[in-house]
Specification:
Length: 423
């Protein structure tokens, strides 16, 4: 499409540089001098533009050779755009309609031009605003089950799965970000960490001295790095989901890697628990967001139950890979053996999922990359109690995950924490 030498786009150069592309002419408008371009990227890594013309609009997402959040001192390879493109194409096949349509991928320029989702908003933003989206629990539960089951040895032909494993194994630098930022940095005084200070200092010191927690965090990191079960989205939080009341779309899989089935589910559910604890920082008066709180906990239950039911459905209908073969179970007249194996697999996903959720909560409050749920609570004296409650839940999930048996039990813990008066 363009020259092979990477150059970052700008609002000024974009029409000229992309205006010759036939696909974009058809989607946006034939005369690129009439395109209007707005830079809207507010994420940690990339440039994102909305380009509008007389025929329509598109999103142009371009990787930069460094971490945007930190600057050029932290180089990051452009190839993350390649992994995002390949992850999007696989997710589109595995759960059609749930990711944006891709119009153009240019590997040398590290850019993906894709469908402009409108009037969608980022789910995290909608939850901060107190919006109750009716579909997300079900849509996201289905998405997780379909993409994670169909990307694994439960479903794929082994040659295809191993080729994919090799392809995504090169997403080293983005895995390295997760390995450090999620699993290690929060638990010591890493240079880029920050937290609400001085309010959180005592609990942060306790968590960093907590032997059981640190061991669990490293066991979870071990799972992350060694359990290459399926193609994970890799960064599935509420900032990676766009919504309307009628539609849910998942975006931004540049962290895609082969990892545990439980990883995406845990990261996602953690972000609903964080949203829950942040509501006190956003409500107009105490209790004004009680309906929202109940909605968030119900959504977590819907998401997990939908995931579990769809995973079980796919297990019974699409288990064509090398694992738990029907030839050993159903075809030998022993369908109960397949059900027994399914229960064991789901139970393992459950216990890992809780651990990943706990660690995700901690890193969003103690590490480099915080989330807007808490960050938009301007008054630190109001923000700190919200964060403290979330940190306590995170510790409970990570350390006690082998002994937690239901979301009902967690709901009780969450609601009890919410009522705690903190000095
Ligand atoms: C340096 S990147 C920090 C975080 O932003 C991304 O969205 C991922 O969540 C990553 O951990
Ligand atoms: Mg992202």
């Amino acid at each position: 499409m363009e020259s092979q030498v990477f150059a970052a786009l700008s609002v000024e150069t974009l029409p000229d540089r992309l205006g010759g592309n036939a696909v974009l002419k058809a989607k946006i408008g034939a005369d690129s001098s009439h395109w209007s371009v707005k830079e809207v990227g507010d994420g940690n890594l990339n440039l994102v533009f909305i380009v509008t013309g007389d025929r329509g609009a598109a999103i142009v997402k371009q990787a930069l050779p460094y971490v945007r959040l930190v600057g050029e001192s932290w180089p990051l390879p452009l190839k993350r755009s390649f992994f995002e493109y390949h992850a999007l194409t696989r997710q589109a096949a595995r759960d059609p309609g749930m990711v944006p349509e891709i119009y153009v991928f240019d590997e040398a320029q590290a850019l993906i031009v894709m469908e402009y989702l409108t009037p969608h908003v980022i789910l995290r933003r909608a939850l901060i605003d107190g919006r109750e989206l009716p579909r997300i629990g079900r849509d996201l539960g289905l998405f997780a089950a379909r993409t994670l089951f169909r990307g694994s040895d439960l479903s794929m032909a082994t040659r295809e799965k191993k080729a994919d494993l090799a392809l995504f194994a090169d997403n080293v630098e983005l895995c390295d970000i997760t390995e450090n930022l999620v699993f290690s940095d929060p638990y010591f005084e890493a240079a880029l960490n920050r937290h609400t200070t001085p309010q959180l200092d005592p609990i942060v010191a306790d968590l960093r001295a907590d032997r059981d927690l640190k061991v669990e965090a490293q066991r979870l990191k071990h799972l992350f790095s060694a359990k290459a079960e399926t193609l994970c989205h890799g960064d599935l939080h509420t900032g990676s989901v766009m919504v309307t009341d009628d539609e849910t779309r998942v975006i931004d899989p540049e962290f895609a890697f082969y990892g545990p089935i439980s990883f995406d589910v845990g990261m996602l559910i953690a972000n609903f628990w964080m949203s829950y604890f942040s509501q006190a920082g956003h409500e107009a008066a105490p209790g004004a967001r009680d309906g929202m709180r109940a909605y968030l906990l119900d959504t977590i239950e819907t998401l997990w139950e939908t995931f579990r039911a769809e995973f079980a459905h796919l297990w019974r209908t699409e288990r064509k890979g090398i694992l738990y073969q029907a030839s050993l179970f159903e075809d030998r007249g022993d369908p109960l053996a397949a059900e027994q194996a399914l229960a064991i697999v789901i139970d393992e996903i459950w216990r890992e999922m809780l651990g990943f959720a706990g660690i995700e909560i901690h890193r969003r409050i103690l590490g480099l990359a915080h989330n807007a749920d808490f960050e938009t609570i301007a008054d630190p004296d109001r923000r700190a109690p919200c964060e403290t409650k979330a940190l306590k839940l995170g510790r409970h999930l990570a350390v006690n995950r082998q002994r937690i048996h239901s979301l009902r039990d967690i709901r009780e813990t969450v609601e009890r924490l919410e009522k705690e008066i903190l000095a």
